[in-house]
Each structure stands twice: as structure tokens, then as C-alpha cells.
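Journal club prep, notes for RB
We'll compare a predicted complex against what the paper describes. Inputs for the dihydroflavine-adenine dinucleotide case:
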Amino acid sequence: MMRSALLWLSARQSIFNFVSRNRLAKRFAARFVAGQTLPEAIAVARELKARGIMVSLDLLGESVTKPVEAEQARDAYIEILDAMKAAGLEVNASLKPTQMGFDIDEAACEANIRSVLQRAVEVEAFVRMDMESSAYTQRTLDLYHRLAPSFADQTGVVIQAALRRSTGDITTLNQHKARVRLCKGAYLEPAEVAYPDKSDVDAHYERLMTALLTEGKYPGIATHDEIMIEKAKQFATANGIARDSFEFQMLYGIRRDLQSALVRDGWRIRVYIPFGTQWYPYLMRRLAERPANIVFILGNLVKEAFSRK
Ligand code: FDA
């Protein structure tokens, strides 16, 4: 119930317009968002690099409605790639097709993403297309297949274990040697397309993960699920899968302890760093994954308030 309510709220721009001015809401967001500006995100990326953690920068923003907003997002991503290169970081970013104008004009959106990927070639970067709700799955995969002939080394996609169709998608993507990030899926979906039960999502995740580790091209195992991570480690070890042939991925601000433990034990780990002013839908999806976060963050804010007195 709570998850559905938070996910429903995540899609309500009018609520964001209201809460974005609220100081408490901004401090809530700071738990999961690395700042509002690119220099702040670069500073976080540098800190993580110093801890042996790779990063992917994400400029928050989605579902733009005007071509000019999509063009601004394109230019901002080119700036992100350049800034990462200049900072001596491995250049890696994640973007959302709807941020590049997918809902306005698919051809223009593709042209925007091609411009970003062209810069990715120049600065030896990798730019993954995040996966949004199931309304976009087929269109995003089609877009990937159109981009791959020119940019196979620069881009990849995301597959969500929550979706029933994902077994078939992984088979096709593995045949095409596509770089896939596997996640559970963060969107509210109807039961016809997605498993309603978490146990089914987890079982599907494990099957897809095994297929990717065996036949995929440098997959990203994106999860904070400790049991799943343990299963991935055991599967890789038992099957002689090299530690540098895949990476674990986690979100900024979640399970830092687990991130450090993976580095310490010699596994590759990348942290997805969201930044920018459009943090509301992202924050609501993080709260929906773990509604206890609301209590946790409120508790910390109260503690901070008292310690300042
Ligand atoms: P699960 O939800 O089972 O959680 C396992 C454990 O992780 C929890 O018990 C808790 O300890 C911890 N945890 C999980 N979420 C937490 C949170 N918000 N706060 C605190 N602790 C939390 N989704 C999508 O639909 N499209 C995409 O493109 C992406 N991209 C993406 C990139 C990366 C790098 C990651 C890690 C995740 C995504 N996701 C995503 C989000 C993903 O689909 C999923 O919603 C979250 O990762 C939560 O699922 P877990 O796999 O962590 O498992």
C-alpha cells in the first residue's frame, strides 16, 4: 500500500512544485542526492574514487515536455562527460530517454542521445540509458538497437527483473553482446506485465543474473540485496568468472557498508550518483523501496536539530 502510494506520488509534478520549496524536503533529498550542481557531484565522485569505487553520474530530470528542455539536458550531459574527463575520473554517466525528449519527438530524442554518445567516443566514456516504466521498455530497447551499430562500446541498457518479459530480453541482448545493467525495477507496474510478489522478482533476478554472468558482456549487477550479492559472488567463484568481467552497482547513499566491503574483498563496484534540482521523482522511488527510510531520515533530522541546541 505504502509503496504504491509513494510511487503514485512520485509521478505528480504538481506536488514537486509544492515540496521543492520546502527546506525539510530538501534535506530529505540530500540523503540520496549528491548535490544540486555538477561541481558537487564531481567532488562526491572524487571521494568515491579515493575509496576504490567507480561512479556513474546522473543528472536528475525526466519526462520533459519542451524540445528546449531536452536540448538543455543533452548539453548538460556533454558538459558532465567533459567535466569528468577534466577531473581525471573514469567517464561514465546514466541518462533517461524521457529527459532527452522521448515523449515529445522520438527522432529528436535519438539525435540528442547520438550527440551525447558522439562526445562519449571522443572522451572514451560510457553512457547508459536508464530504464523507465514498462510503457517505455520496447521503445527503449528499439532505440538501443538503433544506436548500437555506431555506439556499441559507448552505451548499454537496463533490464528490470520485475518485468515478466525480461527473460526474453536478456536472451536477445546477450546474443547482441549488449552491456546490460540488471535491476529489480523501481516503477509501479500492472500485474499483467510485472510480478506482484517480491519473492518472484527476486527469483527472476537470480535467473537473469546467472544468464548475464555466463553469457553477458560486462554486466552491471545493480542491487543492494545482500543475499543476491552473495549469490553472485558464489556463482562467479564456482564458475571461474573473472572478477573484472562484471561489476556490482549501488545507488549513492545506500548501503555504504556493503560498498566498502565489496571493495575490500576485491570486487568491482560502481555507485550511481544522482545530482541536480529535479530530485522529487527519484527521492519518492527511493522512499517507496524502503518506507522505513522516512522514519530513518526524520529521526536523523530530529537528532541533528537537538545536537545544534
Ligand atoms: P531490494 O528492494 O530487495 O532491497 C534489498 C535491500 O537493499 C533492502 O533490504 C535494504 O537494506 C536495501 N535497500 C534497497 N533500497 C533501499 C533504499 N531506497 N534505501 C535504503 N535501503 C535500501 N530501477 C529502474 O527501474 N530503472 C533503472 O534504470 C534503475 N537503475 C538503477 C541503477 C543502480 C545502480 C541501482 C542500484 C538501482 C537502479 N534501479 C533502477 C533501482 C532498482 O530497480 C531498485 O528499485 C533498487 O535498487 C532497490 O532494489 P534492490 O535490488 O536494492 O533490492
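Talking point for the session: Residues 130-131, 158, 160, 181, 183-187, 222-225, 249-251, 254-255, 272, 286, 289-290, 293 surround dihydroflavine-adenine dinucleotide (CB under 6 Å).
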